[in-house]
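Entry 12.
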Amino acid sequence: MYIKSHASIYNSQVTKSFYLFASPFHCGNIVSCCIKTRTIDGIMSLTQEKKQEIMSNYQVHATDTGSADLQVAMLTERINRLSQHLQANKKDHSSRRGLLKLIGQRKRLLGYILKGDRERYQALIARLGIRG
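Predicted 3D structure (tokens):
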């Protein structure tokens, strides 16, 4: 049994059609089994509960939602999740680019913290377990 699938690029006239082959010994659920979709919801995104947990652990004061320490902690969690995803999906180059952007952002924030208070910087990287 063949299933026709259609893909198109929005801004140009390029349109591609391809066929997927489903064997007669297939499980029967072609949509979820044969046609692979890229879903990264559970792996790379932070849930609201996880964000609240990180906020409670790294807040500088009670109403802190965006200090540099907190941003570095959030970025570190996202970097760790994305690194795990990339170990399983080695050819996901767009996520790799996103990972490099997150690492650069974290590096700039850590430089800002280091410029202001060296002890705070040392305590933060020790607490996060980064910089070996």
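Annotation: The beta strands are 2-8, 15-21. The chain is about 55% helix and 10% strand.
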